[in-house]
Amino acid sequence: MQHDELWIGTMLEGNARWVLVKSTDTVEEARRRHGMSPLATAALGRSMTGALVLASSLKGEENVTLRLLGDGPLGGVVAVGNARGEVRGYVREPLVDLPLKASGKLDVGTAVGRGELTVSRSLQNGEVYTGMVPLVSGEIAEDLVHYLLSSEQIPSAMLLGVLVEKDYHVAGAGGLLIQPLPGAPEEDIQAIENQLGRLQTGISELVAQSESMEELLSHLLGKLPYHVLERRPVGFTCMCSKERLSGTLVSLGKKEIADLISDGKAEMVCHFCNEHYQFSMDELQEIWERA
Ligand SMILES: [Zn+2]
Prior knowledge:
The protein has about 290 residues and is of the alpha+beta class. The chain is built from ten helices and 13 strands. The chain has helices spanning about 25-35, 40-55, 110, 140-150, 185-200, 205-210, 215-220, 240-250, 255-265, 280-290; strands at about 5-10, 15-20, 65-70, 75-80, 85-90, 115-120, 130-135, 155-165, 170-180, 225-235, 235, 265-270, 275-280. A hairpin with a 5-residue loop joins strand 6 (about 115-120) and strand 7. The protein starts with a strand and ends with a helix. The mean pLDDT is about 95. It is found in: Cytoplasm.
């Protein structure tokens, strides 16, 4: 399949809405930038895909930040997605490794551990809404479903998956959210549950196998009738720049900057994309004057 995309639609004659994301290249870029192990790639990839799904109902610059802070060896995951399909993120310990689960799957739940999930929505009017729930399993999709139900009273079904090859490349990544709308008849809810229960293959494998978003949708939704409302491109995009980071340096104050100057140079690294920015003596001098 070609580019990463997010599709939004309805199903069962408008009684439910769905969001489908193919995020293979996006997660592969995150893996490459952060030099992540397969386990860290799965944890961050699921979180970034989840952030894209949740951000899809927002507008423009509005964004969603997911923070999974658990006591596992991963040490925390942060993913930020916006309504334009831009997403970025990082994990605290990118090299984390654990034995596979009995099912042969990467043990994301143990890597994340027990703790909290925080979801913050930052809106255009400057308001930020934050909700926090305990992590249910650390497997991320389950945690987001729990958050949506307990914090926003929205029943949902969600699949998130990342398939990492033996050579560490991401072969498939994606996510599906289905939400019955208020008043949806019980048989429609049952039909959605039955269809998801029938899936024998994980969403990441289905993404890897599918030639198109249509084919992926037909694997996931089976015979349930659906309608596509919107298609958007998605991708890994960071907001950092040398200018922004000099702003951060300015805010550190003259003393801190003077210490950097005495070293002769400074390097700043963006957490979100692992981009390295070098500041020369002259640039530091100019920043010191602005401070
Ligand atoms: Zn960055």
